[in-house]
Specification:
The protein contains 12 helices and 8 strands. It has helices at 19-30, 42-51, 59-65, 76-84, 107-118, 147-157, 172-201, 205-213, 222-233, 243-259, 266-282, 291-302, and strands spanning 11-15, 34-38, 54-55, 68-71, 98-101, 123-126, 139-144, 161-168. Helix 1 runs parallel beside helix 2, helix 4 (76-84) packs parallel to helix 5 (107-118) and helix 7 packs parallel to helix 12 (291-302).
Amino acid sequence: MLSSADLRVNKVGLIGVGTMGKCMLERLIENGFEVVAFDPFPAAQEFAKEKGAVLASSPAEVASEAKLILMSLPAAKHIFEVISGEKGLIDALTAEHVIVDTSTVSPLTSQNGAEIVAAKGASYVDTSILGRPSAVGNWLLPAGGSEIAIEFATPVLLTFAKKVVRVGDVGAGNALKLLNQLMFSVINGVSAEVMALAKAIGVDKKAFYDVVANSDAATVSGLFKETARRIVLEEYDNPTFTIELLCKDADLGIQMAKDAGVTPLIAGFVQMFNENAKGKGLGKQDTSSIAKVFEEHFKKLEQ
């Protein structure tokens, strides 16, 4: 059983060296932590090795080397493969282990993951990231799990986040993140629609963006500035966040609400446009590319 006497960590396991995992790995190494990393993709392995991490051959090997294990994975199926698949974490977990999942998944996924590892006495924390890759160091992490497990992980998490906030039991961190993602979807969608409307009614898009983004209007947000700027420049490749990831997150948020017996209205409507954009082949482009769907829609109305 984890106790307050176990709070010092020198070695950290990291499973998943993707976009966010790379950010975490760099900060961990810079702050003097030993990192044992696992990722099945050669490019990720090479990145981890170049940065100074020790490569593990399996999640089980990560667990045999480190008591604190961070996961940064794309979807629920990957989480369960890592935990209980072949040479998974479960093979080497003990009551001294704490698993911190930074993936954006449903609260139920985190709760199921926690139930599996609890059979070995291990603790589980879900703490999805609020922040873009470029904002590493200023991320805020809403965390779900026991107080002692979160306390154990916090010094490590603060190498790449400005604050860790316990928001409830396991699953609460993901619930908060998914609510945020629904809000993101709506703000991104209305920003793109307004930019397309400006074009349709003859207002110069750049002029609209420059005036509004540099005003003190209550409508101005960091997301509007980024979305509208990309639309002005038609800068949809090299995405900050893709349409397909937004579809995934918003779908999880909508399903979470439905599981609670309620149906999101505005977020549900915007999700139709997100899915439309994905269906048109824009899935790998930045979320701002949804403007193309609105522009096409307005052109049809003019005809």
